[in-house]
Write a structure and sequence with these properties.
The protein has helices at about 75-85, 115-120, 130-145, 160-175, 185-195; strands at about 10-15, 20-30, 35-40, 45-50, 50-55, 90-95, 100, 180, 185. It is α+β, with helices and mostly antiparallel strands. It has two domains: about 1-55, SH3 type barrels, CATH 2.30.30.140; about 105-195, Kinesin. The longest helix has 16 residues, at about 160-175. The mean pLDDT is about 90. The structure holds adenosine-5'-triphosphate (ATP). Adenosine-5'-triphosphate binds near residues 104, 107, 158, 162 and 163. Adenosine-5'-triphosphate binds next to helix 4. One of its GO terms (cellular component) is myosin complex. InterPro entries: Kinesin_motor_dom_sf, Myosin_head_motor_dom-like, P-loop_NTPase, SH3_Myosin. Belongs to the TRAFAC class myosin-kinesin ATPase superfamily. Myosin family.
């Protein structure tokens, strides 16, 4: 994709960096298939045009909450968007109807308090900030509307936060299920016993 790019002096781009993985910079000279770049960490490098990616210079300070709306859907653009959000403790980002959750490695109570659950209950998907409760809510409503079982797939590498995320999903489903009883136990008790 980089080959079809119009790179000119002044273009903002991403290039690979052995320490930072990706670094952004500005092109100050083009020379055939090579470009000369000033990187934001103060280096001057020469790189092949096929190894660079365009940078969106208009990303809002909180990043973009759905990555399908990124101007450039490439690895540095995706990683930068997640990093910008993570730096502000925004751990959830959509890619369409998939939720990406990044382990905050710290307690973020506002994400799981009862008020937050209330807020997501019945809200249209995409109307509120990305959240695991929104995924649970839409899955639950679909299940109820269609009268069929539904599944939520939680995947990630070891330590990514699958267990914590699943606990939040369960708590939210228990909250939606309310206190109606089957077999002497409330729906809430039964759902929480699953985890
Ligand atoms: N949403 C979160 N908020 C706060 N801390 C979290 C969150 N998600 C994960 N953590 C922290 O990261 C640790 C690892 O997360 P977790 O056990 O959920 O990972 P996992 O993907 O289930 O790992 P494994 O596959 O190895 O079982 C937790 O014990 C917790 O300290």
């Amino acid at each position: 994709m980089a080959a079809t790019l119009k790179i000119v002096v002044g273009s903002h781009i991403w290039l690979e960096d052995k320490d930072l993985v990706w670094i952004d910079g500005e092109v100050f000279r083009t020379e055939g298939q090579n470009v000369h770049v000033h990187t934001t960490n103060g280096k001057t490098v020469t790189v092949s045009i096929s190894d660079i990616h365009p940078k969106d210079t208009e990303v809002p300070s909180d990043g973009i909450d759905d990555m399908t709306r990124l101007s450039y859907l490439h690895e540095p653009g995706v990683l930068n968007n997640l990093a910008v959000r993570y730096a502000k403790n925004i751990i959830y980002t959509y890619t369409g109807n998939i939720l990406i959750a990044i382990n905050p490695f710290q307690s973020l109570p506002h994400l799981s308090e009862p008020r937050t659950m209330e807020k997501y209950k019945g809200a249209n998907f995409g109307e509120l900030d990305p959240h695991v409760f929104a995924i649970a809510d839409v899955s639950y409503r679909q299940m109820m509307n269609e009268g069929k079982s539904n599944s939520i797939l939680v995947s990630g590498e070891s330590g990514a936060g699958k267990t914590e995320t699943t606990k939040m999903l369960m708590r939210y489903l228990a909250f939606l299920g309310g206190r109606s009883k089957t077999g002497g136990r409330t729906v809430e008790q039964q759902v929480l016993e699953v985890s």
